[in-house]
Design goal:
It is a single chain. With 322 residues, the chain is an alpha+beta fold. The chain contains six helices and 17 strands. The strands form three sheets. Strands 6-7-8-11-10-9 form a six-stranded antiparallel barrel. Strands 12, 13, 14, 15, 16 and 17 form a six-stranded mixed sheet that branches. Strands 1-2-5-4-3 form a five-stranded antiparallel sheet. A hairpin with an 8-residue loop joins strand 10 and strand 11. The radius of gyration is 20 Å and the shape is elongated. The two termini are 31 Å apart. The relative contact order is 0.14.
Length: 322
């Protein structure tokens, strides 16, 4: 999700070929939503249903995708039920953590008001898990993960499946698309969505691609503050700050991204990408209005996300699109 001032990632799950359930705070104040499904190109999403006080949202994607569709459990699980949290915590690949249901009908305030019908679990849940499913041993969704530890170890929370199923059924019947937030700068034509593909098999390629996608979405939606935050402070300072960096971006936008390969080890990697942009001739290299770039992005892990630390053009200036 790209907002005007920041970007964030979370988890969701399919309930139909074109419907994804997630947590409301994952898509709140979104200017653009992009969803990745394994090795498939990313797809655009719009919010079809949203309830902040239940921390639930339903996202409709712009084309059907193949994938396992989860079903909600009809009743709350008894205390002691074995459960597993599925998601993408702390920038890691898909992760499953196990635990039990340790409490029912909890009311929790995460800052926007008290949310009821919460399941308490001791399954390990971290930032990035939000919106993912809490599954029972039969693979049914018993809850939608909302937050990890709140003031105590081993206490995480999920919205109970019956509450979520009721909301999702209502939104499927009478959902109204929630308009994306406008950030005040010149957005790209239409929604500004562009597909991202991952050709590299490096275990961090998808996470790096997500970081670059958030940066490009920020540019496309005129969310320059969010896009600028994808730079390390050192790189941002070298550009002279956000205002200087964003000059002339009003006509420029990304249209296609592929992470070709990733090299290096540890917390500093190099991602070689193929990128296509469009821009006014005045802002394009050699007057190009459509450019194909081969860019080597140096990215560093700051403990929570991959940030862009530098760029290079190993193949020289971009070529005009064919």
């Amino acid at each position: 999700m790209t907002g005007c001032e920041f970007s964030a990632t979370g988890t969701g799950f399919l309930i139909a070929p074109d419907l994804v359930v997630t947590a409301a705070h994952v898509v709140d104040d979104a200017s653009a939503i992009s969803i990745a499904f394994g090795g498939e190109p990313s797809v655009e999403g719009v919010v079809l249903g949203f309830n902040e006080l239940a921390d639930l949202a339903l996202v409709r994607i712009n084309r059907p995708v193949a994938g396992h569709q989860l079903q909600f459990q009809e009743a709350q699980p008894p205390i002691g039920t074995d459960v597993a949290a599925l998601g993408f915590p702390l920038g890691e690949p898909l992760t499953l953590t196990r635990g039990i249901v340790s409490g029912l009908d909890r009311e929790v305030n995460f800052g926007s008001g008290r949310i009821g019908n919460m399941i308490q679990t001791d399954a390990a849940i971290n930032p990035g898990n939000s919106g993912g499913p809490l599954l029972d041993e039969q693979g049914f969704v018993t809850g939608i993960i909302s937050a990890g530890t709140v003031g105590a170890e081993g206490m995480s929370y999920a919205v109970a499946a019956p509450r979520a199923a009721e909301a999702v059924a209502e939104w499927q019947l009478r959902g109204v698309v929630r308009a994306p937030v406008t950030c005040g700068n010149a957005p790209a034509p239409n929604s500004g969505f562009f597909p991202m593909t991952i050709s590299s098999n490096h275990d961090q390629a998808t996470n790096i691609g997500q970081a670059l996608l958030l940066h490009g979405q920020g540019i496309n939606r005129g969310a320059y503050s969010a896009a600028f935050k994808q730079f390390t402070p050192e790189l941002g300072a070298s550009f002279g700050g956000e205002a200087e960096w964003s000059k002339g971006l009003g006509s420029s936008y990304w249209t296609k991204l592929d992470v070709v390969n990733v090299t290096g080890t540890g917390d500093s990697l190099v991602a070689n990408v193929s990128l296509r942009t469009r821009q006014d001739a005045a802002h394009g290299v050699a007057g190009q209005t459509c450019s194909d770039w081969r860019i080597a992005y140096t990215v560093v892990w700051d403990g929570a996300a991959w940030l862009i630390a530098g760029t290079a053009l190993p193949h020289g200036n971009p070529q005009a699109c064919v």
